[in-house]
Amino acid sequence: MSGLKLFRTDTTNSGMTEVMPRLAEIEADVQGLVEAHMETLLGVRFLASEYGTGPVHGGRIDSLGLDENGSPVIVEYKRGTDAGVINQGLFYLAWLVDHRAEFERLVRDRFGVTAASQVLWSSPRLICIAGDFTRYDVHAVREHRRSIDLVRYRLFGSDLLGLETVASVCGGMQAARRVRHRDVAQAAAGVQGASMVELAGAVDEVLLGLGDGVNRVERKTYRAYQRLRNFACLCPPQRSKLLVYLKVDPKDVELVAGFTRDVSGLGHHGTGDLEVQLRTLRDVERAQDLFRASYAAA
Questions:
Q1: pTM of the full predicted structure?
Q2: Which of 25, 62, 151, 261 is exposed most, by the fewest CB atoms within 10 A?
């Protein structure tokens, strides 16, 4: 947002009018806007606002939520630039990890028993939304062993909101994921053979290489690739193919039998309405435009 300029076309005079960016009047305005549309904006289901952490801890978490993969999420807001937002969020994140049962009760009461039983405690997240961040903030998140997203906001005119991911890191989870990735590959090798392992490795390399800040989250039934939200979900290899689910509207794609399928409204592992079936490395190459489109949408 710092370098982005937004213009509105003037159809009457065939001109262009710049829509000037601005910060919110108060922090609560940003919080209220995000909480009202949290799933659309962040891919996070809203749980609670201004959640008290008790008299001993003595704090209030701005927003609590649950992301698409079942990871607990804390969202902290600042109107402008505030050097304390990351440390404040980490303070609350430590409390959250120590109060898992309390969080799971919240999830159960709002989303049901199944959602509560599937909370993914291996990768709790902190999302900081602020008017801006310094280079010291970006460096700091890369030194922590936590999943942290720094998101810059701007308001444009009276009805436009812009969000920009400034930094997105997984901290200490990366090493564990690499080990898990090898375990998955080795297990697949015993069942599907080397070709499926090679194919899964190629998909993993392509998805991680789409840009900075791509995080990989392991679930039992799929592996999610996310920026601020999921853009691809890779299921374990089948006998002769891999299934990848993308955040691409199937109506915008010319579907090809045996390669792409509209799964809107159909139950499947992971998230996304477009199923891509991969059988060979050539299929991975064919799918790259779809991968990029889903990444851009996230």
A1: 0.83
A2: 25
